[in-house]
Amino acid sequence: MSLLGIALGAQAKEWPAPIKALEAQGVEVIGTFDAPGGLTGYAGMVDQQPLAIYLTADGKQAIVGSMIDAQGANLSQEPLNRLVSKPMSVKIWKQLENSTWIADGSKNAPRIIYTFTDPNCPYCNKFWNDARPWVTAGKVQLRHVIVAILTNTSAGKAAALLSAKDPQAALTQHEQQHASGGLKPLGQVSATVRAQLDANQKLMQQLGSSATPTIFYKDASGTLQKMQGAPSAEMLAKMMGPR
C-alpha cells in the first residue's frame, strides 16, 4: 500500500519489470498516466518527492525524468500534481493537524503554517521573531509542533510549554526571553508529554527532516511545500504573503 493510501497494491504485482526494478531501488509507484510518443507514464515518489517515469513501448526500459514538449512545457507536472503532490499534501496536512502543536496567532488567520520547533533552537527563535509582522497583523497563524531533540534541557522546556495553563502565552514569553534561556525546564516530564514529544519527533522523521525549524506551508496552488532553517526575507514573503 502506498504512503498516500491509494489502493494500488494489487496493481503493483503487475508492474512491468523496469518499474519493479525501480520499486526495488526505493521508488514508490503511485499510478499511471497517458504519455505521448508511445510511452506509458508512471507517477512515483522517492524521499517525499514526486518522480515521473516513462516506460518504452516494448515495456523493456524505463526513463526517469521530466518530459518537455516543443514549446518547452513540462508535460510531467500536471500528472505528478494530480496523482502525487495533491494527495500527499492532503495526507501530510492532516498528520500535522493531528500532531501536538501550540498556536501562535489568531485562530481566524487566513494562512496557517506548521513549524517543528525545539525550545532551544536559535533558528526557531529567529523565525518566531521574523514572523511577528504577519502574526500580529492576524494574517498568519504559526503552529509550533514541539520537539525535543537539541539539548538535555529541551524536553524539560518543551514540557513547560505544553503543560502551561496558556501554552500560547508561555511560548510568547519563552521566545521573548530566548536569549537568556527562556522558560525554566520542568524537572519531570510526564508520560503524556513524553508521548506527545515522541510522536512529534517520529512524524518529523517520517516527513524527511532531522533539524529545526522545518516549516510546512501551502503555496498558491494549495500544494504543500517544505523548507528547513530560518527563512530569508524573500522566502518569508513567499510563504506568508504580503504584510
Structure in words:
- With 243 residues, the protein is of the alpha+beta class.
- Helix content is 37%, strand content 21%.
- The strands form two sheets. The protein has a five-stranded mixed beta sheet. It has a four-stranded antiparallel beta sheet with strand order 1-2-3-4, with helices on both faces.
- The chain is elongated and about 65 Å long.
- It starts with 8 loop residues before the first helix and ends with a helix.
- Residues 1-12 have low confidence and may be disordered.
Write a concise keyword list for the protein shown above.
243 residues; 9 helices; single chain; 4-stranded antiparallel beta sheet; 5-stranded mixed beta sheet; disordered N terminus
